[in-house]
Amino acid sequence: MSRSTFAIAGFILVAALLGIALVTTAPVHAETETVYQVSTIDALLAGVYEGSHTIAEVRQHGDLGLGTLDALDGEMIVLDGVVYQVKDNGSVVVVPDTMTTPFVAVTWFEADITREIARPVNLTGLQAQLDATFPSHNLFYAIRIDGFFSSVTARSVPAQEKPYPPLVEVVRNQSVFEYTDMQGTIVGFWSPEFVEGINVPGYHFHVISDDRTKGGHLLGCEIEHGVVEIDTTPNFLLNLPLEGDFPALDLGGEHGDEVAQVER
């Protein structure tokens, strides 16, 4: 082989190796900028609590989010790719991949907007600040807030037995937790009004402490200081159950009042 032929072969080899490197370093997650959701909020309101998708499946679609577990067993928080369950007694455990969920929303979180919370604010004031920050109210936003909370009010619910009662009846027996001086993280979504019946229009937040011993569905809080990160998310992927009670469910009618009762 001549020197020129050897040089050409070497160049081709380097180029081929470089091409392989470019392929392997491409983004791993095909669903970035996408909210992935299992089932609908109206199905959950109607008592469809049977898990249809495994946690292993859910973790393939996002590293931040919220939901619940099979039989409505507590509140789910997905943070940094780890799935946590806040039980009705207030304990927090890591959820195994084999467990299932009847309702969850997750996304691959990449902050587009970052804001500092420099002075104390309650949940209502925080939401007003967020409202003014969103570039559009026709998109989805994943939200992460890390901070110090002087007070937190959260809730969880116990696992249900068939025949499952509607969600508005379940929350009448919810467990409410009051925490003070908690370092922690709020995770959740803001969804536009046109998704009513599919997801919760407006804000839906869960919260968990840094030591992973406290948390639940967020009902109220006082934030002393913290950092807000917002991921503008224009895509929405809905995965509906094929078995159980969902296929035959009548999802007609308006349920806005029930959502308000459940969320607040």
What do these coordinates show?
With 264 residues, the chain is α+β, with helices and mostly antiparallel strands. The chain has one domain: 60s Ribosomal Protein L30, Chain: A, CATH 3.30.1330.80. 20% of the residues lie in helices and 39% in strands. It is built from six helices and 15 strands. It has helices at 3-24, 41-45, 55-58, 123-133, 167-170, 256-263, and strands at residues 34-38, 53-54, 64-68, 75-79, 82-86, 92-94, 100-101, 104-107, 113-117, 121-122, 140-156, 175-191, 202-209, 215-233, 235-239. Strand 4 (75-79) and strand 5 form a beta hairpin. The protein is globular and about 50 Å long. The N and C termini lie far apart (78 Å).
Features:
7-stranded mixed sheet, 60s Ribosomal Protein L30, Chain: A, 6-stranded antiparallel sheet, globular, alpha+beta, 20% helix, 264 residues
**Continuous helix count:** 6
Query: What Rg do the Cα atoms give?
Result: 22 Å
**Ranges with pLDDT <50 over ≥5 residues?**
2-27
Strand order of the largest sheet: 6-5-4-3-8-1-15
Q: What is the beta-strand fraction?
A: 35-45%
Based on the structure given, which CATH architecture is correct? 2-Layer Sandwich
Work out the helicity level: 10-25%
The CATH superfamily is known as: Hypothetical protein, similar to alpha- acetolactate decarboxylase, domain 2
Label the structural class.
alpha+beta
- The quaternary state of the protein chains shown equals single chain
What's the order of the H and E elements?
A: HEHEHEEEEEEEEHEHEEEEH
Instruction: Compute the average pLDDT.
Output: 90
Number of strands: 15
Largest sheet: 7 strands, mixed
CATH topology heading: 60s Ribosomal Protein L30, Chain: A
